Amino acid sequence: MPEPTTSAIERLRAGNRVVTVGIIAIVAILAAAAVFLFLSLPDANAFNARVEQIFAQNNALTSSSDIQLLEILAQSGTTFSDVLVSYRMVIFVLLVFSTSLLIAALVFLVTIITQNRRISAIQATGIQVSSLLISRAENTVYLNNLEFKLTEAAIETLSALAEARMDDEVLSGAELEAVISGKSTADCEEAAGATRIKRLRDTLGNQIVSELLVKNIARRGYMLAIDKDVIRMV
User: In terms of CATH architecture, what is 132-233?
Assistant: First the structure.
């Protein structure tokens, strides 16, 4: 029992490390891209500085038309500066947004991978059942903390499987039908027991629970894939 727990803890730590490293890498890459973009953009006052240089180097521009032209250039420089400031803000917002999306995608990806690993582990080892309480009077099964309301036929099938599991027995379809119906095994058909198993799984509903709780052993029959010491019947 300690081995699965240790393995689960190690996998959780490994997943956390992957998320942490991934987030740091994403932030670092986008931060570097942001620095490069901001450094590549021209200075917002570059146009105004050029206009001032024209004023300073051309003292002959004294006519009204020349002055008006220079004023237009100065206004264009101010507009250019405002546009660059807005571009910087848009780039900053887009970088923050893309960082958030990439981090969310990374977290979702790791979560999906972790869930797939857990499901694979469950499919490989079966359900870790700490208690299985069958209440025939209430037609109810308590599996760990899960409560399943079953039909009377499903309770009979599960009870027969539980009794066989406590005796370390595997029941074929015919033997299962014989235990429930009270007939001899020779008078029962394999298909009748298989039908009862199918109805039990359908009643349990949850595919993972039903498929892994009731095991089908080839050429032998059916059994509960749990420790017999956790079974209680009332």
Answer: Orthogonal Bundle (1.10)
Is the CB of residue 190 less than 8 Å from the CB of residue 199? no
Side chain identity at residue 90, one-letter code: V
| Predicted local confidence at residue 91, as pLDDT | 80
Q: Computed over its alpha carbons, how large is the radius of gyration of the chain?
A: 37
Residue-wise pLDDT tens digits, 14-53 = 666 777 777 788 788 878 877 887 777 666 566 667 766 7
pLDDT bin (cut points 50, 70, 90) of residue 139 is confident
Q: Which residue stretches of 41-189 are H helix?
A: 46-57, 64-125, 152-166, 173-181
Residues 6+ apart with CB under 8 A from 158: 134, 141, 150, 200
- Degrees, nearest 5: CA angle 191-197-200: 145
What are 42's two structure tokens? 């021209």
